[in-house]
């Protein structure tokens, strides 16, 4: 049933822009281009096996892996191309970077170059595609360095090394039972639902807030033997429930699709952890700073939640490489702060502490 009384995304963006009379409209146009890419990906995902884009990407015969050493799905590659196609022509961008491209993407010479950088994970949770679980696209908009804009030169990796606090906008689209767009342009978080009749994102969830407290946590427990002591302590205390120091029972979730976990947390609170661990010494965490941790971090903070490495606020981290991985904890503020506190209190988190040793369900 069509609900005509709701604002469209376009209306919402125009109203935001009215607050800045000098704004050119480039920023809004860029966001709309990004969301058009998301709509196209939503359609492709919805067709599933019928669309011919399932399975692994195999240009020759041996398949293909991205710069992170992960098998690329056909839909990863297609989604990446949709992002490029929908945004490269507009003159709003100085360059782009994506999970699926080793190096920064240069705006082709036939198009003008603009003021912004776009960074994205075109399809997050893509290992879930074959099992029909919610996936999504995550994006972050940064200002291009002044000198890049003035010279019009090609972008280099270092142009993207800006802390999350400088993001102009961040968001994700989630392709679940309904397609939604969750967006911040630096003034709270708003949720839009795709009206399949109109093909428009309609404002359905204004001013989303993450409750400060929760009884729900999300972590991949199969990694427990690699966790650091503060994370083990936190999870053990949650598992101890009513009988432990927390004095309340906790529920656990793991979808293995960060976009879906972030969405659940924005809707009803919770804490998500993919912490730094010892699984692979070359990878200080699983998730990527520029196009996973930073945009989701900005959304959380704008919704009154918190995002952290466990040791410092995510928004303060200065990136040092395009595909940098990082430990990520986000969600309800009081829980994230507790986890940060445990990282600052190593003495209490040592194995052998009575609480830790006796109640650990995830001991090595
Ligand atoms: O396989 P695991 O350890 O459950 O990891 C799941 C995590 O990997 C991711 O799928 C990584 O994202 P990509 O699918 O974009 O590579 C996250 O969405 C998710 O949180
Ligand atoms: Mg991802
Ligand atoms: Mg991805």
UniProtKB/TrEMBL annotation:
Pfam families: FBPase (PF00316), FBPase_C (PF18913). It comes from the Bacteria. It is found in: Cytoplasm. GO terms for molecular function: fructose 1,6-bisphosphate 1-phosphatase activity; magnesium ion binding. Residues 7-206 form the Fructose-1-6-bisphosphatase class I N-terminal domain. InterPro entries: FBPase_C_dom, FBPase_class-1, FBPase_N, FBPtase, Fructose_bisphosphatase_AS. Pathway: Carbohydrate biosynthesis; Calvin cycle. Its cofactor is Mg(2+). Residues 344-364 are annotated as: Disordered. PROSITE patterns: FBPASE. Its EC number is 3.1.3.11. Mg(2+) 2 binds at residues 121, 124, 292. The keyword Oxidoreductase does not apply. Keywords: Carbohydrate metabolism, Cytoplasm, Hydrolase, Magnesium, Metal-binding. Belongs to the FBPase class 1 family. This is Fructose-1,6-bisphosphatase class 1. It comes from Serpentinimonas maccroryi.
């Amino acid at each position: 049933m069509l609900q005509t009384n709701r604002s469209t995304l376009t209306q919402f963006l125009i109203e935001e822009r009215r607050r800045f009379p000098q704004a050119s409209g480039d920023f809004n146009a860029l966001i709309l281009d990004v969301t058009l890419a998301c709509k196209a990906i939503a359609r492709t995902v919805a067709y599933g096996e019928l669309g011919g884009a399932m399975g692994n990407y195999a240009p020759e015969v041996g398949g293909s892996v991205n710069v992170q050493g992960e098998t690329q799905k056909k839909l990863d590659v297609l989604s990446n191309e949709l992002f490029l196609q929908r945004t490269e022509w507009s003159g709003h961008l100085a360059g782009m970077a994506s999970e699926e491209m080793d190096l920064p993407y240069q705006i082709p010479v036939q198009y003008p170059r603009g003021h912004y950088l776009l960074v994205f994970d075109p399809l997050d949770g893509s290992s879930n595609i074959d099992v029909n679980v919610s996936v999504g696209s995550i994006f972050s908009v940064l200002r291009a360095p002044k000198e890049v804009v003035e010279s019009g030169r090609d972008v280099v990796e270092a142009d993207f090394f800006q802390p999350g606090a400088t993001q102009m906008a961040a968001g994700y689209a989630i392709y679940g039972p309904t397609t939604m767009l969750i967006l911040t342009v630096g003034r709270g978080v708003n949720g839009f639902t795709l009206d399949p009749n109109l093909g428009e994102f309609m404002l359905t969830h204004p001013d989303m807030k993450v409750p400060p407290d929760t009884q729900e946590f999300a972590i991949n427990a199969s990694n427990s033997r690699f966790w650091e002591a503060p994370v083990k302590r936190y999870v053990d205390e949650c598992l101890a429930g009513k009988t432990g120091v927390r004095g309340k029972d906790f529920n656990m979730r793991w979808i293995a699709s960060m976009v879906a976990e972030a969405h659940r947390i924005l809707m009803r609170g919770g804490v998500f952890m993919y912490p730094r661990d010892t699984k692979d010494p070359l990878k200080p965490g699983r998730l990527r700073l520029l196009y996973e941790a930073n945009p989701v971090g900005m959304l959380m903070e704008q919704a009154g939640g918190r995002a952290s490495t466990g040791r410092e606020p995510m928004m303060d981290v200065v990136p040092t490489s395009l595909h940098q991985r990082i430990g990520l904890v986000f969600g309800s503020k009081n829980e994230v702060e507790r986890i940060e506190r445990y990282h600052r209190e190593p003495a209490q988190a040592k194995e052998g502490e009575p609480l830790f040793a006796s109640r650990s369900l995830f001991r090595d």
